[in-house]
Amino acid sequence: MIWQTIRWQPLRYLAGGAFCALVHNVIVISATQCGIAYPVALILSFGVTTPIGYLIHSAFTFEQARSWIRLQRFMLTAIMGFLGSTLLMVLLCTGLRVPVIVATPVATVLLFVWNFTSARWAILQGR
C-alpha cells in the first residue's frame, strides 16, 4: 500500500505542479505585458501560487493533513525556490535580454526538480 502511494507521488506532483506552473506563468507574463516590472510580477505570483501549491500538494500529491509546521517548512522552501527563480530571471531577462515570455517558462522548468524535492520534504518530514 505504501509503495503504491510513493510510486504515484511524482505523477501527482507533476499534475499539481503543472497547474501551479501554469498559474505562475500566466500571472508573470500577463503582469509584464500590462507594464508591471518582472520582479513585482514574481512577488505577485509567489503570493498567489504558494498557498495554492501547499494545498494541492498536501491533499493531492502527498495525501497529508495540513499543519502549521508543514506550512512553515513549505514556505521556507518556497522562499528558497523564489530566490532561485528570481536569480534565473535576472540572469535571463536582465543579463541575457531574454524576453519574459520566454524566460518565465525556462526558469519554471529549471526549478521543477528543486520544487518537487523541497515540497516532498516539507510535507512528509517527520511522518
From TrEMBL:
Alphabetical list of InterPro entries matching this protein: GtrA_CellWall_Glycosyl, GtrA_DPMS_TM
Membrane-spanning segments: 12-30, 36-62, 74-92, 98-117
Main location (coarse class): membrane
UniProt subcellular location: Membrane
One Pfam short name: GtrA_DPMS_TM
Keywords (A to Z) from UniProt: Membrane, Transmembrane, Transmembrane helix
Membrane association type: Multi-pass membrane protein
Keyword Membrane found: yes
Ranges of residues in domain GtrA/DPMS transmembrane: 12-123
Family as reported in the entry's similarity comment: Belongs to the GtrA family.
Name of the protein described by the UniProt record: GtrA/DPMS transmembrane domain-containing protein
